[in-house]
Amino acid sequence: MGVCHEENPMNKTDLIARIAEETGRTKTDSESFLNSLIGQVTQALAAGESVVLPGFGTFEVRARAARTGRNPQTGATIEIAAAKVPAFKPGAGLKKGVSGG
């Protein structure tokens, strides 16, 4: 699956402005809402919980196994420790919206 690299991706400030415009709230209120959402998702993931937003997707924590890697500068073999990483699985509604369906 390829990755689309656009020249001007939407950033947090752009998203806040769009939320404010669509909801009729101030940018300050919209920023507060967005920061709260990000904080709550982060806290849930840190506690090992998933966050399910029907139609949008699921934020979850996945275990990444320990593995052997290579230092790109020296070529030396290194051991990379196991880790827990955040992941997002898009829901059907998001997939349909992106594909234009």
List keywords for this structure.
single chain; 101 residues; alpha+beta; three-stranded antiparallel β-sheet; two-stranded antiparallel sheet; 3 helices; elongated; DNA-binding
The rough form would be described as elongated
Number of domains: 1
What profile does the largest beta sheet have?
A: 3 strands, antiparallel
Give me the number of helical elements.
3
Radius of gyration: 18 Å
The total of beta strands comes to: 5
Structure description:
- By secondary structure, the protein is of the alpha+beta class.
- It has one domain (12-93): HU Protein, Chain A (Irregular), CATH 4.10.520.10.
- Helices cover 40% and strands 27% of the residues.
- It contains three helices and five strands.
- It has helices at 12-23, 27-46, 92-99, and strands at 51-53, 57-64, 67-70, 77-80, 83-90.
- The chain has a three-stranded antiparallel β-sheet.
- A hairpin with a 6-residue loop joins strand 3 and strand 4 (77-80).
- Helix 1 (12-23) packs across helix 2.
- The longest helix has 20 residues, at 27-46.
- The radius of gyration is 18 Å and the shape is elongated.
- The two termini are 19 Å apart.
